[in-house]
Amino acid sequence: MSTSSLVLILVVVAVVLIAALVTGVVLTRRRRISLTQKEETPRPGGYQASSGISLTPAAPEATTAEAPVPVEHPVAERTEVDGQPGVGDDASVPRDSAKRGFVEVDLPEEASEVEEIEPTAGRLERLRGKLSKSRNAFGTSLLGLLGAGDLDEDSWQDVEDTLLIADLGAATTTEIVSTLRSKIAGSGVRTEAEAQALVRSVLVDALGPTMDRSLKALPHAGKPAVLLVVGVNGVGKTTTTGKLARVLVADGRTVLLGAADTFRAAAADQLETWGKRVGAETVRGPEGGDPASVAFESVKRGMDTGVDTVLIDTAGRLHTKKGLMDELGKVKRVIEKQAVVDEVLLVLDATTGQNGLTQARVFAEQVAITGIVLTKLDGTAKGGIVFQVQRELGVPVKLVGLGEGADHLAPFEPGAFVDALLG
Ligand SMILES: Nc1nc2c(ncn2[C@@H]2O[C@H](COP(=O)(O)OP(=O)(O)OP(=O)(O)O)[C@@H](O)[C@H]2O)c(=O)[nH]1
């Protein structure tokens, strides 16, 4: 290779090296400028912690003199990352970057505690699953027996036993069995569908479908309706009163609750909580105070404030049965000094069977019961108690409790009830 060729090669190499050096310097400078510009010019439409979203200044402790001096860093202004790199950021955020303090955020005005309430219409249909224990023990076996075709005496005995076990009571059972026997003999039942239709009509008839089950809970003569809720300890009076308040509020009514159960300390708290959930006022007295006085004050307050309905929860336990009954009589008399008691609702626990009936008799002797609320039907296979209690007292079951949920109180409808039992 000649000397001139060697010189030429050296010159070319030198030019390439110089060009590479110049390009590298330019690229480095451009990158730096680009970073600075991103910081100085807000990205249109991009997330900016200090714009669009209203934030108050950081909590005082983050801005005190003792706070560490923030380290200069492209992401130092970002408050949402607590020093951790975000997408597109340089990952080398120093560990000693200033940590974000507490940020005071303007909250909307305190949320209303008043709850959404399920519509009351069609509740029995919606809650029919809650009657599954009774359905399995009663409806299913009854249909199985009757749908099997010609029934001999043993089969009829089984039908009778099924009804008795479901707590329909001897009198109602005898009546239903004899009606079924004559109807089946007269018309002949060949299929399960026919058996179902026949049983349905006989059971619905036995539930007195024409009884007036309306709740007298609307104001009249310029005064609120007054409802007394009575029953023994633990049957679900307070819960029912609370659920009933929801039913009324859902219907657009205004309600006041009277906590006349002064015997059990927590009862008034429990009732007040129910009231708050639907925006209803609760009148209460001192623990161990005079229930009649609380009832009187409740009705007075209800009239003064112009509510549609006053619901009064009473005690279920006293030292003696006589004491309880005397007190109940007094509560009612005292209310009647200023308003009519429109309903006395007797709450019975469906799971207590015959015991519940005995209670019902005692209460009915003391105060004129106008309606029955049968609670805890969800927890029993003995839904047949509905038949018996109505027959015993001659008073309609107006409401049924089908669970501990706030809206698990349904109007009692014979047709829907029997349908739920028969599946
Ligand atoms: N599963 C079920 N539980 C219910 C029903 N109604 C009420 N309960 C529960 O029965 C328990 C007693 O209810 P309360 O309302 O405190 O009874 P109470 O009659 O007011 O009791 P005292 O104030 O002691 O007289 C509570 O745990 C209720 O959640 C219902 O329909 N189904």
From TrEMBL:
Q: Per its UniProt record, what SUPFAM superfamilies does this chain match?
A: Domain of the SRP/SRP receptor G-proteins, P-loop containing nucleoside triphosphate hydrolases
GO biological process annotations for this chain's record?
SRP-dependent cotranslational protein targeting to membrane
Q: Which residues bind GTP?
A: 231-238, 313-317, 375-378
- Alphabetically ordered keywords of this record: Cell membrane, Cytoplasm, GTP-binding, Hydrolase, Membrane, Nucleotide-binding, Receptor, Transmembrane, Transmembrane helix
Q: What is its EC number?
A: 3.6.5.4
> What Gene Ontology cellular-component terms does the record carry?
cytoplasm; plasma membrane
Q: What does the record give as the reaction this protein catalyses? A: GTP + H2O = GDP + phosphate + H(+)
From the record, give the transmembrane residue ranges.
Answer: 6-28
What membrane topology is annotated for this entry? Peripheral membrane protein
**Top enzyme class of this protein?**
hydrolase
Give the Low complexity compositional bias ranges: 56-72
Location(s) in or outside the cell: Cell membrane; Cytoplasm
Molecular function GO terms recorded: GTP binding; GTPase activity; signal recognition particle binding
SRP54-type proteins GTP-binding domain mapped to chain residues: 396-409
Annotated stretches, region: Disordered:
37-100
Q: Which family does it belong to?
A: Belongs to the GTP-binding SRP family. FtsY subfamily.
What role does this protein play?
Answer: Involved in targeting and insertion of nascent membrane proteins into the cytoplasmic membrane. Acts as a receptor for the complex formed by the signal recognition particle (SRP) and the ribosome-nascent chain (RNC).
HAMAP family from the xrefs?
Answer: FtsY
Quaternary arrangement and interactors, per the entry? Part of the signal recognition particle protein translocation system, which is composed of SRP and FtsY.
How is this protein named in the record? Signal recognition particle receptor FtsY
